[in-house]
Hints:
Blueprint: H1 6-10, H2 18-22, H3 30-38, E1 41-47, E2 53-59, E3 66-69, E4 72-76, H4 85-93, E5 95-101, E6 108-118, H5 121-125, E7 137-148, H6 151-156, H7 173-181, H8 190-198
Antiparallel strand pairs: 1-2, 1-5, 3-4, 4-7, 5-6, 6-7
Amino acid sequence: xxxxxxxxxxxxxxxxxxxxxxxxxxxxxxxxxxxxxxxxxxxxxxxxxxxxxxxxxxxxxxxxxxxxxxxxxxxxxxxxxxxxxxxxxxxxxxxxxxxxxxxxxxxxxxxxxxxxxxxxxxxxxxxxxxxxxxxxxxxxxxxxxxxxxxxxxxxxxxxxxxxxxxxxxxxxxxxxxxxxxxxxxxxxxxxxxxxxxxxxx
Length: 201
């Protein structure tokens, strides 16, 4: 049986408890701001006009995402592969979902809101002390923020040292991409890739 209505779906689950409902905030409180200040990594989810979905990892030094006020975030756009999927989606729909993570912390911070791409001088100057200036920044206007429970990270044991996977269990990125694309040039080694990435961080 397909679950194709909200009524069928709700019949399978209990109603959320009061805390799960009330923890959803319309603005950033001090706990949200502190969490963002400690976070070196987030996943940014977006959608295009025709519902093409994208989830993009973003990282930097802890606090690389800047909090302007209790409703505004600035995310620097660091160098990537120049596909620009996320940025094109922002232009198309202006909506984002963010998932902030802090290494060693099983809880996450979820933020949903509207977004636009900015090269405003005051926005760019927020990153004036960074290792390199971003080409542009993503301005996020917070509509919903809430702390997400630890269960997924506890199940996955993501931060546990004995759960880490040896990199040798996978082919190198160069080998995998050559296999996927049919490119016949020599595959870049993992060490060569990391050195090339390090020069462009």
